[in-house]
Amino acid sequence: MDQVLLITGASRGIGRAAALLAAERGFAVAVNYTSNSLAADEVVREIRAMGGSAMSVQADVGDEAQVLSMFQKIDARFGPLTALVNNAGVVDMKARVDEMSVERLERMFRINIVGSFVCAREAVRRMSTRYGGAGGAIVNLSSAAARLGSPGQYVDYAASKGAIDSFTIGLAKEVAEEGIRVNAVRPGLIDTDIHASGGLPDRAAQLAPSVPMKRTGSAAEVATAILWLLSPEASYVTGTFLEVTGGR
Length: 248
Fold this sequence. Notes:
Blueprint: E1 4-7, H1 13-24, E2 28-33, H2 37-49, E3 53-58, H3 64-78, E4 83-86, H4 102-127, E5 136-141, H5 145-148, H6 155-175, E6 180-187, H7 194-197, H8 203-207, H9 219-230, E7 241-244
Parallel strand pairs: 1-2, 1-4, 2-3, 4-5, 5-6, 6-7
């Protein structure tokens, strides 16, 4: 059976690295993006150049109608999903909690939490033996921030990732008898452009000395952890968290 993987937010950073590695390992990859079609198309081009199979598919994961349309397009092109990486997420500008607007909080939680729930819901409907599926695997992107809290910077982001942790545990137990494994990766300080989108482009480099390994991680290192959790090598692993933090 073909292995069909959807990675949300796959046009850059960790998602992009995971898409390329997954293609190398034989997955047909759906590369989701929100607005940067050129970047997503470039990932697809790279995958096809290596002999892999890929498609780009636009959807804001915070919009249910767009998510439903995305899954329908993947069904039509590749068939039912067998793997999902809930990678799409946002940070916002550095702020204290007493400075945060409701609009900021609603955007953060809609994309980071609700989006992951809706994508997982649609994946379960396709993978679960309860619905006639053949099983599959889901990997959620959490963060070391869920443990650390990100005081003075992104407490809302950290809280959204704490919710992803609870979601991972609960969903894993819910579908364990239905052929689906659900795990999460908790990246630490990874050198991607998500820091710049929060107004702190040098954040990773500045905090690197606080990491026991004294360096930032790479998107490729996180991708390797994701692909292990998706693989048969992790066949008895569910409801757990793989820290990719350099010891932080």
